[in-house]
């Protein structure tokens, strides 16, 4: 390849097209064709002056009506002064639209990659144009700028009256370009009048102009709420800021609040949410921490305890960023971010932008005012985006209308992220999260397994729930919305709670909830919190399971189950009463084993999954428990042969208590009921045929597991 300094305009014709390409060029000064029909998001602004990134640009030479330039640039004659000879150069086409008149194919050709910021916009426009609008971004963009830490800050870094005047003046200028724009000020009243004389006058000036801005409460002393374990104490601190607001005519009805350092928002500190609601009637907050700080484009929102949590965007201005020239990387870096770089693109890609800034960014040389005013001007110059602003509640409602799939939170493990660990209650420990889950399905022997596991001195389960006994049922249903603290309270980290001899390190904690197996949302949620957990499932004949489940419902006095025979339940058609159809689904669906296991395997690797043959658990529990201990790598290995014994009266294996006495499971496990009728048995064999066939395939794929006898039987009689 030629070195760039030696390059010449080497032309190559694109095969079959009246189009020549010159490659390997350095260019500068890009401009757009205002008449190009491709432009939608992109606006033909001025010229993007300066060298364009890269030294391997291609330009297009065309001589046919099918072609229309979208972007031009000049050769970088600063590099080759001899080339220009002082003459004006013709612009070279760097992005070209092909209308398809020649060969019927419409194209947009780019002479360079997406390193050049303008190409990122043009690429979106090309997608929109070529897809006839199917792949188009909406052009509305909302912008909210929060100024945290009002009144907080060292002497010498705070606002003076002229800074406040500049704030108001710039707000007016921005509002003329962004309808509805007002700075959103978050205050900590405790530090009011803590500055130098001029700065205290600045505080007063701000309060005299209280109606110019939107306001929200920060913490009174700028404390981190996750350090509070006591709700009353936290509320009394919030109350102080509330009283301050009242005294100084600061509006208290924004329904928005921000927590210092994102503390308590995510990972959620429940008492923060409760206190916020009670004192400030908070409806919206925002954070950069959900699910993680980086990458910024993956930040999401969620709703917890009726508080809408929005993702917040970073604009590179932190408490200590106070001077333009001391911006990390210098003024050029800041301008690069504004002029097509990170800040500019954040607004291009996010329909709703909440930016975090700090009071200190508005004193000194007012870096933040420069930043926002400039980026908005730049956006107006180069895009057709419709910028506007609105108070946080409106933004939040808009956000969740756009992203209904984000409403439900997904709780991650706070210990997986050092930042999260820092803003998580000191009382919590990741040691008190389960290392394995017994997921069911129901009626396969999960209680027997749970009881046998609990006999092991190194294994502990959760403390019982008052509603659902040994099962917490967290990852499915409404308990999930109670939050992680609620779940973790079932796993006390002090060893006194359950087993005295073992430390948290040697304790192998688990949880069993038999409805997890077929819970739609469970694998995703479990994996988000416990990605390294082992997953244990038990399978028996799905027909037998369905029948046992039906008997269980009858024994529990479930009205519908008592009013209909098993056959009627499993054959209920679409015209049946809803309650009967629901019962049918709950009875039959968990037995579609392969389908549910595939769902788990979409989140967990096969090595973390252990499938127990439920018939073996019933007939030969000692071997099953030995296998399971090996799989879980539990030490020491517990010898179950001395502790489990077949109880002829119960008809099942039970726990050995003494030479003569066994402790068996209660009456509800191993019930007496008539055998399944022939008709139902035949029907279910047919019903589960495809599911059982898929299960055999899956088990084979998973490796050396012997195919359970019940599965072979179900399949042989089902054909
Ligand atoms: N050792 C031992 N003792 C008692 N019962 C045993 C045992 N091993 C397996 N089984 C079978 O477990 C079935 C109940 O399953 P679950 O405990 O998973 O039911 S539940 O979902 O928790 O309600 C229960 O179902 P039913 O026989 O229909 O009552 C038993 O067949």
Walk me through what this model shows.
The N and C termini lie far apart (68 Å). The protein is globular and about 100 Å long. Helix 13 (484-488) links the parallel strand 19 and strand 20. It contains 24 helices and 25 strands. It folds into 3 domains: 6-130, no CATH class; 140-406, Glycoside hydrolase/deacetylase (TIM Barrel); 429-539 and 605-668, Rossmann fold. By secondary structure, the protein is of the alpha/beta class. Helix 23 (689-702) packs antiparallel against helix 24. The protein binds 3'-phosphate-adenosine-5'-phosphate sulfate.
Our measurement of the CA-to-CA distance between the termini, rounded to an integer number of angstroms, reads: 68 Å
Number of strands: 25
The CATH homology group name of the largest domain: Glycoside hydrolase/deacetylase
The major beta sheet can be summarized as: 6 strands, parallel
Q: What is the CATH level 1 assignment of the largest domain?
A: Alpha Beta
Q: Which structural class should the secondary elements be placed in? A: alpha/beta
User: Roughly what percent helix?
Assistant: 25-40%
Radius of gyration: 33 Å
Q: Uncertain regions: pLDDT < 50 for 5+ in a row?
A: 1-7, 495-501
Count of helix runs = 24
Number of domains: 3
Determine the strand fraction and express it as a percent band.
15-25%
**Bound ligands:** 3'-phosphate-adenosine-5'-phosphate sulfate
What would you say the CATH architecture of the largest domain is? Alpha-Beta Barrel
CATH topology of the largest domain: TIM Barrel
InterPro entries: Heparan_SO4_deacetylase_dom, HSNSD_N, NST/OST, P-loop_NTPase, Sulfotransferase_dom
Main location: Golgi
GO biological process, one term: heparin proteoglycan biosynthetic process
Keywords: Disulfide bond, Glycoprotein, Golgi apparatus, Hydrolase, Membrane, Multifunctional enzyme, Signal-anchor, Transferase, Transmembrane, Transmembrane helix
């Amino acid at each position: 390849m030629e070195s760039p300094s030696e390059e010449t305009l080497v032309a190559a014709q694109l095969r079959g097209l009246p189009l020549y390409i010159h490659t390997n060029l350095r260019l500068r000064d890009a401009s757009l064709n205002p008449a190009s029909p491709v432009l939608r998001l992109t606006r033909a602004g001025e010229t993007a002056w300066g060298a364009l990134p890269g030294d391997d640009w291609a330009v297009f030479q065309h001589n046919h009506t099918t072609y229309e330039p979208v972007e031009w640039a000049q050769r970088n004659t600063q590099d080759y002064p001899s080339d220009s000879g002082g003459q004006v150069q013709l612009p070279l086409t760097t992005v070209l639209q092909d209308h398809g008149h020649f060969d019927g194919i419409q194209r947009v050709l780019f002479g360079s990659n997406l390193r050049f910021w303008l190409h990122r916009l043009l690429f979106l426009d090309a997608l929109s144009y070529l897809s006839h609008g199917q792949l188009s971004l909406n052009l509305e963009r909302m912008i909210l700028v929060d100024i945290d830490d009002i009144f907080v800050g060292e002497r010498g870094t705070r606002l003076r009256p002229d800074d406040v005047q500049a704030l108001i003046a710039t707000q007016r200028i921005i509002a003329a370009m962004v309808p509805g724009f007002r700075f959103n000020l978050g205050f900590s009243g405790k530090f009011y009048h803590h500055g130098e004389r001029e700065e205290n006058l600045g505080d007063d000036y701000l309060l005299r102009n209280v109606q110019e801005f939107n306001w929200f409460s920060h913490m009174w002393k700028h404390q981190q709420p996750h350090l509070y374990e006591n709700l009353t104490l936290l509320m009394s601190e919030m109350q102080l800021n509330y009283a301050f607001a009242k005294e100084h005519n600061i509006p208290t009805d924004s329904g928005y609040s921000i927590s210092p350092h994102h503390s308590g928002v995510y990972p959620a500190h429940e008492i923060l949410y409760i206190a916020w609601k009670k004192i400030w009637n908070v409806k919206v907050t925002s954070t950069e921490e959900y699910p993680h700080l980086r990458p910024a484009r993956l930040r999401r929102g969620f709703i917890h305890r009726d508080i809408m949590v929005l993702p917040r965007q970073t604009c590179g201005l932190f408490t200590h960023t106070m001077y333009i020239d001391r911006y990390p990387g210098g003024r050029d870096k800041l301008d690069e971010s504004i002029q097509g770089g990170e800040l500019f693109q954040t607004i291009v890609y996010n329909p709703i932008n909440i930016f975090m800034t700090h009071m200190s960014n508005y004193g000194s040389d007012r870096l933040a005012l420069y930043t926002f005013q400039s980026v908005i001007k730049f956006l107006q110059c180069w895009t057709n985006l419709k910028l506007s602003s609105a108070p946080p509640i409106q933004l939040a409602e808009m956000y969740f209308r756009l992203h209904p799939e984000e409403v439900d939170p997904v709780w991650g493990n706070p210990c997986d992220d050092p930042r999260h660990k820092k803003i998580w209650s000191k009382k919590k420990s990741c040691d008190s999260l389960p290392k394995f889950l017994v997921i069911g399905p129901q009626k396969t022997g999960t209680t027997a397994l749970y009881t046998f596991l609990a006999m092991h001195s190194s294994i502990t389960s959760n403390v019982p729930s008052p509603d659902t006994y040994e099962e917490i049922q967290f990852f499915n249903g409404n308990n999930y919305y109670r939050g992680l603290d609620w779940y973790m309270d079932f796993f006390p980290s002090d060893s006194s709670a359950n087993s005295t001899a073992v430390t948290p390190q040697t304790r192998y904690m688990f949880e069993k909830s038999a409805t997890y197996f077929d819970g739609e949302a469970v694998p995703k949620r479990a994996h988000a919190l416990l990605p390294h957990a082992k997953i244990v499932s038990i399978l028996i004949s799905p027909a037998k399971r369905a029948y046992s489940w039906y008997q269980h419902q009858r024994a529990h006095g479930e009205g519908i189950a008592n009013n209909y025979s098993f056959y009627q339940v499993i054959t209920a058609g679409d015209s049946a009463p809803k309650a009967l159809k629901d019962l049918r689904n709950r009875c039959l669906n968990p037995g579609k084993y392969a389908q549910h296991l595939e769902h788990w395997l979409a989140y967990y690797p096969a090595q973390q999954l252990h499938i127990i043959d439920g018939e073996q658990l019933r007939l030969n529990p000692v071997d099953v428990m030995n296998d399971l201990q090996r799989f879980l790598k539990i030490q020491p290995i517990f010898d179950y042969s001395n502790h489990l014994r077949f109880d002829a009266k119960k008809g099942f294996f039970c726990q050995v208590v003494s030479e003569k006495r066994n402790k068996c499971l209660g009456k509800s496990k191993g019930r007496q009921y008539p055998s399944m009728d022939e008709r139902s048995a035949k029907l279910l064999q047919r019903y589960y045929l495809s599911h059982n066939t898929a299960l055999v395939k899956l088990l084979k794929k998973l490796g050396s597991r012997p195919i359970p006898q019940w599965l072979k039987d179900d399949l042989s009689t089902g054909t």
